[in-house]
Amino acid sequence: MSDVCPVCGMPKELCICGAITKEQLQIKVRVAKKRYGRLMTIIEGIDPKAVDMKALAKRMKQKFACGGTVKNDTIELQGDHREKVKQILIEEGFPPENIEVI
Ligand SMILES: [Zn+2]
User: Fold this and answer.
1) Residue 42 in contact with residue 32, Cβ under 8 Å?
2) Residues within 5 Å of ion ligand 1 by Cβ?
3) pTM, to two decimals
4) May I ask the CATH architecture of the domain 22-101?
């Protein structure tokens, strides 16, 4: 007999009580000025347990044809892509009211 979650009664491997969902995340999209006046779009608040950040960053880089990296639970993209980032996050299932564009 496998372990059962005391909250939902589901087997532990199917239980999502402890899981973080996209609906719970508060995303912040802002622009930072880097060296030589270059602009970076910074996306904060995504939890790597809820989202495949590498895949998300890859999708954004392809769509915007820009460079970018994933660091410390933050996605950084070269250039100012704030409005387009918001659009992609909505397409990915993040509630628009949880995405703050600064
Ligand atoms: Zn559970």
Assistant:
1) yes
2) 5, 7-8, 15, 17
3) 0.82
4) 2-Layer Sandwich (3.30)
